[in-house]
Amino acid sequence: MDEVDAVADMWVDLAASQRTYRSHIRGPENRETIRDALARHVVTDGLRVARMDDEIVGFVMFGLERGEYVQDVTRGVVRNIYVEPAARNRGIGSELLSTAERELRDADAEVITLDVMAGNEAARRFYERHGYSPHRVEIEKRVESDTHSKED
């Protein structure tokens, strides 16, 4: 299994863990999509991995925002960051985040953004310790329907 496949498997684990916080993204069903995205990030130099004993234990995906609107700042985006549960609390996540921030700063990002699930208090504390603060809040409402949901 190559590195992109190993990271894709970790992303599936990340997506599964985010379902605890009401994420709508399904991991296994999106594995090929994320594998393609990871391959693009490898090409654009926006993927870094962390290793312990030659095994990949974490990753971060990042890049400059390429939106349809002209903005007054260049935004860097940390798209995904994940550390295997057994490798947590060793500074690996902090090192991955610092690496992404340094790379984005070197690419002329003026601000760095990321998303975190509202209910994921541990992740929110982690990012706050690294200087992040809320900038925009996404809210949602479940819509009642006569048809079956995708969960059925």
UniProtKB/TrEMBL annotation:
GO terms, molecular function: acyltransferase activity, transferring groups other than amino-acyl groups
Keyword Cytoplasm included in the entry's annotation: no
Origin superkingdom: Archaea
Keywords (A to Z) from UniProt: Acyltransferase, Transferase
Domain (N-acetyltransferase) ranges: 1-152
SUPFAM superfamilies: Acyl-CoA N-acyltransferases (Nat)
Name listed for the protein in its UniProt record: GNAT family N-acetyltransferase
Organism: Halopelagius longus
